Amino acid sequence: MDSTPTIPVQRPSRWDEPLDASMTDADVAWLRTRGPFNQMDQSAFPRATPLSGILRYDCRLHRVEPGEVIVREGDYGNSAFLLVTGNVRVLVDSLTDQQLGRQPARSIGWGEALSRFLRRSPHPETRTAEQVSINAGPGGHQSIRQVDDRPAIFLQDIEGVLRRHESVSLGPGELFGEVAAMYRSPRTATVVAETEAALVEIRWQGLRILRRDRRFADTLEQHYRRHWLPVHLREIPLLRYLPEENMQRVIEATELRSYGRMEWNADYKKTRKLHPADQIASEPLVVDQGQLPTELIVVRSGFGRMCVRHGAAHRTVAYLGKGHLFGIEEIAYNAMRPESMPALQYQHSLRAVGFLDALSIPIEVFATEILPHIRKSELPESAQTLQKAFTEKRTDRRRVRSDQRSEPAASFSPDPSQDIEHAAGVSFDSTSMLEFIVQHRLNNGREAMVIDLHRCTRCDDCVKACADVHDGNPRFVRQGIVHDRLQFVQACMHCSDPVCMIGCPTGAIARDQNTGVVSIHDPICVGCGVCAAACPYENIAMAEVVDRKGRPYVDEKSGKAIRKAAKCDQCSGLPSGPACAAACPHDALVRIDLSESPPLSDWLEKRS
């Protein structure tokens, strides 16, 4: 018997970190008197997570003032908002970047680029006064003020904005922001306070537990199915020509499922150290290889790993991102096969990499409502071949007697491995490279910096070029994890799932909808460091800023140094594109999309 002494400790709980440590018993008691909480069935909640506990630890009370921007279109969030008192407006029309306090993307010519280069400051992290002042929004359309103990952004002409833009009014008891919170997607609209109002912010963990109350869950699901599921299904290329009556039946049959932990970044540093086999084994199983297909899986957000059994372990063959389909190969084939041929089983397993949110369409619905409306060119290669065989067989039957028929289609044997790239949209020739990318979550990067070490001479021209366009302060150093001949440099990757954007109190970090670049808008960055702390790759730094003479900016009230978030901005607007790649004399560096494999595999093929 093992006599090694043990040390008793209390197991950490997510409630060890409440959303708002200042929530009191009185606050919880008051919320219990308000809808929908006063109508919830308390017996529906587990003893370990009672309703009062959810309100105490997963909720935060907010007081908002007229004109305050509560959520911004395009932002990412992990919480929903319930209106308790007052009114807010959901803006149907999009506001401009200027109205939201963001810096609109602007391209510059070679002349201005050269002028900037010649006038660059000798001091790192130089800013103008307009870039530092929190109330220096472009055109005066916005400002930042303190509301209670937090910074808040305001629209200056709220009445004029509401006159010029179509909007929908929400009152007490209405919920908004739940789709972005539950499915890790960008906010689809901007919400502004019309009057002074009280809100309850509910983080996604609590929101999911609240769904144990059947009435609340039904309300959420009906709202999603009515407003958002049709939009999400229409985004799938295979369904774009689906008649409306068929689409309605698909909507009714589609199930919503989530796997893994949405806050995957909290476990990133630990899981990336695991052996690939152990990491795969730890990932939630969505579909197991060898099962008969029962549903088509559509990835809504997050990532899935496609793998096959390899001895006692599994080997990764592809990864799936937003919009990709799993099972289309097998399901399309089975729906068209003759009765004399056996059904094709799932040829791969699917596991959630960190977090995976998916839509599940039953195969019966796919066969009857979707398949007849899919264009032949969009079917997997094996299904196209089988469909062609069926067409030829029917033609032959009309031309010859039954005893002269052509060979039955049962002789056709599909090889799904030949069509992985069509089914998954992502594949790699090198299993080890693929598993390395997934293990380190590099597949999250849409603009990753990759260096071919066989070509790199360590001249650091890339770093010097970055410094030249950022006032002498480069946004990266030439270091990062290495696999074989490739180095994945520690620079902002402008991620598919930008967890850095979650929690910014003013929306200073935002993604440009046209370019996909995630950038910092200095005038409304309050230097809180939330984005830097959230980035799992440590690609955002907080820096004290100075003027062109090197004099540090300080807060006029506290005297503390002004800090701003600093990160790669892809040299946004420069005619050369990213200066790092343009300056490399040996074509050793590339900014590349790792959420899809063809760019990297094509780049490597050119160098082989």
TrEMBL record:
Instruction: State the CDD domains in the record.
Output: CAP_ED, DMSOR_beta_like
Query: Which parts of this chain are annotated as the region Disordered?
Result: 382-421
Pfam families hit by this protein: cNMP_binding, Fer4_11
* Enzymatic class: oxidoreductase
Instruction: Tell me its EC number(s), please.
Output: 1.2.1.58
Keyword Phosphoprotein set for record:
no
Write down the superkingdom of origin: Bacteria
Task: Using the record, list the residue span of the signal peptide; answer none if the entry has no such feature.
Answer: none
- Asked if the record carries the keyword Hydrolase, the reply is no
What ranges does the record list as Basic and acidic residues composition bias? 390-406
Alphabetized, the UniProt keywords read: 4Fe-4S, Iron, Iron-sulfur, Metal-binding, Oxidoreductase, Repeat
For the 4Fe-4S ferredoxin-type domain, which residue ranges apply? 447-475, 516-545
Tell me the ranges covered by the Cyclic nucleotide-binding domain, including all copies: 57-210, 238-343
Q: Which GO terms describe its molecular function?
A: 4 iron, 4 sulfur cluster binding; metal ion binding; phenylglyoxylate dehydrogenase (acylating) activity
PROSITE patterns, sorted: 4FE4S_FER_1, 4FE4S_FER_2, CNMP_BINDING_3
Q: What is this protein called?
A: NADH-dependent phenylglyoxylate dehydrogenase subunit beta
Record the organism. Stieleria neptunia
What are the top taxonomic ranks of the organism? Bacteria, Pseudomonadati, Planctomycetota, Planctomycetia, Pirellulales
